[in-house]
Amino acid sequence: AALKHGLCSQVSAALKEGRVTPTELCQRCLALIKSTKFLNAYITVAEETALKQAEESEERYKRGQPLGILDGIPIAVKDNFNTAGIETTCASNMLKGYISPYNATVVQKLLDQGAVLLGKTNLDEFAMGSGSTDGVFGPVRNPWSYSKQYKEKSVSKSHSEDEESNWVITGGSSGGSAAAVSSFTCFAALGSDTGGSTRNPAAHCGVVGLKPTYGLISRHGLIPLVNSMDVPGILTRCVDDAAVLLGSLAGHDPKDSTTVQDDFKPFELPNLTDVSKLSIGIPKEYHAPGLSSEILALWSKAADLFKNAGAKVVEVSLPHTRYSIVCYHVLCTAEVASNMARFDGLEYGHRSDKKESTESMYAATRREGFNDVVRGRILSGNYFLLKQNYEKYFVKAQKVRRLIANDFIKVFRSGVDILLTPTTLTDAAPYTEFIQEDNRTRSAQDDVLTQAANMAGLPAINVPTALSERGLPVGLQFIGRSFQEKQLLTVAKWFEKQVQFPMIQLEEVKRHDNVVFQHQKSASFS
Amino acid sequence: QEVSVEVLGHLEHLALVDFRDSEGVERLQKAIQFADQLHEVNTDGMEPMDSVLEDRWCVYLREDDVTEGNCTKDLLENAREKVEEYFVAPPGNIPLPKLEERDTFLQSS
């Protein structure tokens, strides 16, 4: 029998052999969530339903009839996906108390596979932001802030003072999901990715973050931000697990007309040994202003890694890269202005007490329900959509979008298989530093390297690569061709194996059975 | 150029979201400035792109068959004010007061 890889496969095997039961697994994860509450990764913990799901899974294993690899595996879901019977807030006052009447398609698919839904994770309000700091439930803390690796590198004054003031952000907006996976409270988590919201926190939290091709995975039930760019994102501890999750989520959904109708065949990743037929492109424009010398060096080292292994590594150009963020800014705010119009207090969500007129009730509801970031984007979006501005800004941005998408097409047509770029400009910033700049400025800075893949709809993945001088994770990004996730993940997996990214050493986390947690060699890339 | 108070008021009315304070207005100004960089790009002859999937013709029409529904109870569950099977709204057709009469920050600018 073929050797199955990945953490989920290992756990699945352990469940089948009875070395651990789904309820034990669920209880341990729930306990860990409690003991890592200070991370603020979860908004809602669905303890009762999770235990019930775990019990049902256990019954199936007893009968020898598990539903698949994911049966009994604890997962978490970003709080902008609808989950039936469970509060879905988008970290906003607008949806506090909103109990979804249905499951998002991706949530339903996971539940149908027997996955155990532990809870909903924290994010920036309505997924707008790159720090997971701007939600109404407060910021998410990066688990690496509490790691031995980071603490060792921090200039120590008093021990307790450090922890409170030195903690670093997770990145965003899927920070809660990234922190949840990174701190071992779940085996995989769903995020969303519109401008980098899955890959950015994945890089900062040292986990794998996959943005699939637009149109591959259903957005039905994902509360939309930018309909033409949003995708559900997958966060896992290793590339093999991302492939497993992808396999259970991808495919046409009649409820989402923007999913392609082609048949999707789930795949197992081969163990690539020969990269000599591979052509890796290094886009020179991704050497962006503000890129830390550390990350530049790692990127270079990675390119050499491929070269020394026999791959063809070429410098390429994506000339419109620097306009991507501006283009995104216009298209995003315009689509947001439209998408946020549904929040008026009538059918669901927060409702103001103002009664004079429908419009005044709407206006008051929206003033009370949305934070400044969301309101700012709505107002900007409406500005760009004004009759006098429509051609000048919105249509112009749509034309620039085509230029950006064409840049990628040209490069892939020239024989390049995969692009290799940094994911973020720096390692994770301390929270106190991060909040000095406003959300829009930060997003504009932080999305620079991830955003273009959303413009062009291409699949992209963050692979944790090495620790920075501050002891924090740094990841690199691979961008692939449309719908070529298998190739993308195969290369990512090869790279993951080469770099042997170290495991986080969290004092708070009691290490469980070897069977349950994969131990990676401590030899690291840097 | 600065955005006129008329346009700001118009935006508040369209968006049903108010600027709250000078920071809000400044935020818009900065956003416009940022977006103006788009005009550096030559887009002659380029068609606007609506969707990255435009080549795949995946946006289709399905048959007009009723496949789901009858979920009135679920849909009403999350509404705060309802009567029988209706959502209840305050009186409509009453426009928001004009800028001069509104309780908005823009008054003082």
TrEMBL record, chain A:
GO terms for biological process: glutaminyl-tRNAGln biosynthesis via transamidation; mitochondrial translation. Pfam families: Amidase. One of its GO terms (cellular component) is mitochondrion. The keyword Nucleotide-binding applies. Keywords: ATP-binding, Ligase, Mitochondrion, Nucleotide-binding, Protein biosynthesis, Transferase. Residues 28-489 form the Amidase domain. One of its GO terms (molecular function) is ATP binding. It comes from the Eukaryota. This is GATA amidotransferase. It comes from Oreocharis arfaki. The gene is Qrsl1.
From TrEMBL, chain B:
It comes from the Eukaryota. One of its GO terms (cellular component) is glutamyl-tRNA(Gln) amidotransferase complex. One of its GO terms (biological process) is mitochondrial translation. Keywords: Transferase. It holds the Pfam family GatC. One of its GO terms (molecular function) is transferase activity. HAMAP family: GatC. PANTHER family: GLUTAMYL-TRNA(GLN) AMIDOTRANSFERASE SUBUNIT C, MITOCHONDRIAL (PTHR15004). This is GATC amidotransferase. It comes from Oreocharis arfaki (tit berrypecker).
